[in-house]
Design a protein that fits this description.
Shape of chain A: globular
Radius of gyration of chain A: 21 Å
InterPro entries (chains A, B): CoA-bd (IPR003781), NAD(P)-bd_dom_sf (IPR036291), Rex_DNA-bd_C_dom (IPR009718), Tscrpt_rep_Rex (IPR022876), WH-like_DNA-bd_sf (IPR036388), WH_DNA-bd_sf (IPR036390)
Strand order of the largest sheet of chain A: 6-7-5-4-8-9-10
Structural class of chain A: alpha/beta
CATH superfamily of the largest domain in chain A: NAD(P)-binding Rossmann-like Domain
Number of helices of chain A: 9
Largest interface: A-B, 75 and 75 residues
Largest sheet of chain A: 7 strands, mixed
Distance between the termini of chain A: 35 Å
Pfam family, one (chains A, B): CoA_binding
CATH class of the largest domain in chain A: Alpha Beta
Strand content of chain A: 15-25%
Subunit structure (chains A, B): Homodimer.
Protein name (chains A, B): Redox-sensing transcriptional repressor Rex
Number of domains of chain A: 2
Oligomer: homodimer
Function (chains A, B): Modulates transcription in response to changes in cellular NADH/NAD(+) redox state.
Amino acid sequence: MKDSTNNNTLLTKNIITRLAKYLRILKSLKSIGLIKVFSSNLGDAAGIAPTVVRKDFSILGINGNKKGGYIIDNLIKQIEGLLGIEDEYKAIIVGCGRIGKALIESEELKREHIHIIAGFDLTPSEPLNNVPIYTTDKMEEIVKKENIKIGIISVPNHAAIKVFEHMREAGIRGFLNFTSVDIKCGDKCPVGCEHKCVINQVNIGLELENLFHLVHITEKHPDLLIE
Amino acid sequence: MKDSTNNNTLLTKNIITRLAKYLRILKSLKSIGLIKVFSSNLGDAAGIAPTVVRKDFSILGINGNKKGGYIIDNLIKQIEGLLGIEDEYKAIIVGCGRIGKALIESEELKREHIHIIAGFDLTPSEPLNNVPIYTTDKMEEIVKKENIKIGIISVPNHAAIKVFEHMREAGIRGFLNFTSVDIKCGDKCPVGCEHKCVINQVNIGLELENLFHLVHITEKHPDLLIE
């Protein structure tokens, strides 16, 4: 990967999400028997402009052939090499209230090959759908034993930072934050840690507020275009 | 608003989210007694570059004074005029499974002034936290009576499109989609409707998958910078 990519490449979350999308489409095309694909076909299937598709691939050091397009097998190999595809993605949940329990019991997540291997809470509790619920003092042991890197934070807001720090201490590096606390790490890390943590936030209140504003603007100010 | 804004302005969801963020900060500054603010102060508080702050305000037709900054009261008035601020945001939920119930019972949403006024499901059910759960055939009546524009879709994937169309028919214009179905409306609307619907998606599976990739890349390809 190092040889074919630019050392100064700036990968973003959006590019990675798009690459994962291309990968799903490429695998479907391969299963149908296709060998080559054009950026315009991939763009159509992904709902993305072909110029963006070509730019994303050039980041991987992959250049298509104007007449022949891209070789599907090469694209799949390159993207998988970068994204680190696994058969099953393992994660833990800290905070087993209503949202935490809903996620542990989610059939949709299982279908998407996401396996919540344990829940953690302040108080001990019975397993949910065969997923054990431990007290938080067991976190380090379980995370290390199962080599888990990904964790969901679904605790009340007031506990968010403390739980984040505990999870990071235990070895978690990727966080899905369901609280409305804007947790920062890395350069902006409040405790100055050296770990490069990645934090994605799902702020349902903010998403709903954004919707109210968008609908209001669409109705009252139709001259202000929204893309 | 029309007089002070550019008719060709392209507002995006991200700009609107930032404006809502500035608004919260401006109100806090006002409550402390401040009258004026510089873009750099607002940028610091919001974690956003001052050039972006100035660009966002110029979209509203607001220009600061290099020496004096912006007048806080004017900013608040202009942003509220655009975003359509209300004391309480009302919404419905369709699909009262685990996620739907968790949202209806969420104390965090209440604290953020979001009031789920009703839930809808295929089968009748007892009220949850005083929120009535109706069968879906009551949707149009309740939505019209309460003048609701915002709805949450938390049904299984296979029911997503049908439920979306039913909600749109009932008068919902802003959708928070918790399924992993990529629902399109507007120009890409499969049934060619004229309503300008806005659809925000919360795809938890995709968010988690994205985290796995980000952590993998951060560990294995530290030369590929991620912003």
